[in-house]
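We modelled the chain as a single entity of 211 amino acids. Its sequence is:
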Amino acid sequence: MSYTSPNWNTSVLITIDTQNDFTLPNAPAEIIGTSDVLPNMKSVLEAYRTKGLPIIHVIRLYKEDGSNVDLCRREVIENGAKIAAPYTDGAELVSDIRSSSYSSLDTDKLLNGEFQSAGENEWVMYKPRWGAFYQTDLEQFLRGRRIDTLVFTGCNFPNCPRTSMYEASERDFRVVMVADTMSQVYDKGIQEMSNIGVHVCGWDDVLDAIK
């Protein structure tokens, strides 16, 4: 397992879509279970901040005209649903996972493909589809910082986290799935991730590993 074992000292913690509209109870596109894992996510985030290791928050932004929205959701947005709409509070990261120096999203910068600073060694980036690597500069960003291990947390395992982990694997990154910091996880999914060399663990395992 030497090729897939995590290198924690050269890792980045990635949160996926942990935004108000997907996370908060009764939000427009609430993913059940996301708010429940926030305490575990927060523990891992604080450990990474304490160690000075990098963090990237990957988010979605759905323009109200539907022009940048997945085909499966475009009609809903065109018909007036506001989900993670630019310049709205619903698009912001949930307060539990923000750094102390977090400021509101710079929507124009993010939609332009730029990384926005969200704290010391911490950034936010926008992805236009399920996977964090699709039509983004994430790979170049990571390679330029000699990061070889990606530690995934966040919202809705079956969609964006799973796709992002497959994309990371096919680019020969070492991949960690922190299962109890991710919503909508199921046993078959854990097995599938393990089958492609993903290191599946719990939040306390991450804390032990980076001490």
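As a brief sanity check on the tokenised model: The chain has one domain: 8-210. The chain has a mean pLDDT of 97.
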